[in-house]
Please model this.
Amino acid sequence: QLQLQESGPGLVKPSETLSLTCTVSGGSISSSSYYWGWIRQPPGKGLEYIGIVYYTGSTYYNPSLKSRVTFSVDTSKNQFSLKVSSVTAADTAVYYCARLLSDSSKWDWGQGTLVTVSS
Amino acid sequence: QTVVTQEPSFSVSPGGTVTLTCGLSSASVSTNNYPCWYQQAPGQTPRTLIYSTNTRSSGVPDRFSGSILGNKAALTITGAQADDESDYYCVLFVGSGIWVFGGGTKLTVL
Model:
């Protein structure tokens, strides 16, 4: 059974870089059938798509975040990662990693991790 | 910038039927947008109800259904129950690897 587990610091200082990793179990990140993505939700607000990455390293970013976001994939560890640079309080959110089945909108979600940006 | 629109709030009586909609600011929604619907209770991870317009996710009761109605995607709940009271989000594929979430609908059952 697929499991997605986010990990990383729960507190990041303003202007620094937020880094999260998603560990995939019960499925291979190298599968050609899936994309791997990140979604976030600020406290009390709606969901925001950050982007997706393919196991080959191809990336698709939300245009509103593109200048500050970087994805990477480590197929040897079955993990993918998110970096958001120059963070502000507006980046405080629950960050979810997810798997997207190609040619569909079937998303499988991790449990999410809260990241707070504060000095 | 593409905007996905949802009703901010809706109410339904227990046992009643409600249809929530999901639209695009600049075009009609079609199956090519792969509409997907989530239910989110407070403090919980979103639960997938419907994906690819009308495919029910595993374990979701058949009183939840998805469709295209006119120029929007729609989620219909028939026989509403008290525990259907939640936030509902749609997400649409708008091309070039980009997905856009709607702002969510807060459903009240009373």
Chain B touches chain A through 24 residues (CB under 8 Å). The radius of gyration of chain B is 13 Å.
